[in-house]
Amino acid sequence: MKRREWRAASLLLTVLLMLLAAGCGSNKGDGLIKLRVGEVTRSLFYAPQYAALSQGFFEEEGLKIDLQPTYGGDKTMTALLSGSIDIGLVGSETSIYVYQQGTDDPVINFAQVTQTDGTFLVAREPQEEFDWEDLLGSVFLGQRKGGMPQMAGEFVLKKHGINPAADLQMIQNVDFANIPAAFASGTGEYVQLFEPQASIFEQEGTGHVIASFGVESGSLPYTVYMARESFIAKNKDAVEKFTRALYRAQQWVESQPADVVADAVLPYFEDADREIVIRVLERYKEQRSYAADPVIDEAEWNNLLDVMESAGELASRTPHAAIVDNSFAERAKEQ
């Protein structure tokens, strides 16, 4: 082989090795398998994930987790489909949207983290004897249209005989990050909020939690880990280890008091008030928002489809078996 050809071949081999080293589920020099995980937002709603990290469950399974914020369902799915992350933590409705658009490499839901909606109904004034009919004719500051919080919110309103389009003034043109500030500045009589903002408003006297959309909308696979079918096929061992670590964290969060869980997750929320964190965790634990295991059961899936169908966001009902793989979750429970 001529020197120039040899150099070209050597360079090509080096590039290929570099790409493999940087690729999905790659082995690090320390023997750990690296997984790039994109989280749709940083939230106490995902406490089991941070517990798995802080308690060393992922590392004990031989995994190195590169946790990346992906800021929104659309961006998380784009990152997943483009291969810039291996696993996404996001609402399962995003995988349904991708499936219904048609794809040769569908996104598969393989491990559930939260099993209820995570938002609360917050009023400006305390309402000790709140009735959903109190919302009739009010100005309601809701969530972004097409997102799971909005769909779950409207599902609950309809459940109580309220037509969101006709029976109240629904505001949905405020960006997710700006909703708390809009309410604090005087927009709306009621607002649909995630934690910890709901508890912060209570502490400040800005608002008062009067109902839970999570309790009212029932169990559904609200936030799950998902990956492309091709990635799962090539990295079954890594996905199994990941799911096993998550299950250990879910059992740990289930068994520990809120203050212990708070101390475990606080490193991921540097500016958070510990007492607020404990309050949020207690609220989510009390309404069983955290799934106790990673299994995505069919009844929950069908409830999710009902919520999406009610919101007019479902072209057709995607079968549970089409984009849910419970094999890793079931083995984690068995082991």
From TrEMBL:
It comes from the Bacteria. Keywords: Signal. Signal peptide: none annotated. PROSITE patterns: PROKAR_LIPOPROTEIN. SUPFAM superfamilies: Periplasmic binding protein-like II. GO terms for cellular component: periplasmic space. It is found in: Periplasm. Coiled coil: none annotated. It holds the Pfam family NMT1_2. Belongs to the bacterial solute-binding protein SsuA/TauA family. This is ABC transporter substrate-binding protein. It comes from Paenibacillus sambharensis.
